[in-house]
Amino acid sequence: AQSVTQPDIHITVSEGASLELRCNYSYGATPYLFWYVQSPGQGLQLLLKYFSGDTLVQGIKGFEAEFKRSQSSFNLRKPSVHWSDAAEYFCAVGAGTGNQFYFGTGTSLTVIP
Amino acid sequence: KAGVTQTPRYLIKTRGQQVTLSCSPISGHRSVSWYQQTPGQGLQFLFEYFSETQRNKGNFPGRFSGRQFSNSRSEMNVSTLELGDSALYLCASSPVGENTEAFFGQGTRLTVV
Question: Any CB–CB contact under 8 A between A88 and chain B?
């Protein structure tokens, strides 16, 4: 069965520092992978997606993610974090049929000045 | 283009009552999915509708139901509310196809007392 693991429940970084959020997935075929961000009390906003092709994908707000099939990972990175990046980040994998997605439990990001 | 609109934003209900939540997808999107988000369980898939037909269903009791209208608007209904149904209910719409990205609304915060 499909599943997503985000090992880090909470991460704190200093503004301007680099960021990497981890995501591991379990899926039998080529996965459809997504990263979403959620601000308090809001819905989810898509940061980036991977369907196929180049394993390094660029997203909005300066985020990127790298798909590594051998490690079943899809880690999210940003070279320099801004205070406005503080939010909850969710990794998700497509279920294979329709538009059903499995989400990780999320990583809460705190940015300190 | 208008985003996904969910109404109402906030709702307080009493145990045993029923509730109906509404979702208007992005114009042109025919797939609508519903998710329940709670601190303990995270984001859990409820069901997906496509062209007025339920295409996927999550592992929720029959008290949770939904439907989709010919204009792609969707409603979900929860009958015989329980305290544990308190959650943020998120609706997402997707373009035609499968495993396409989901665009989320801001959610309906349901509190059951």
Answer: no
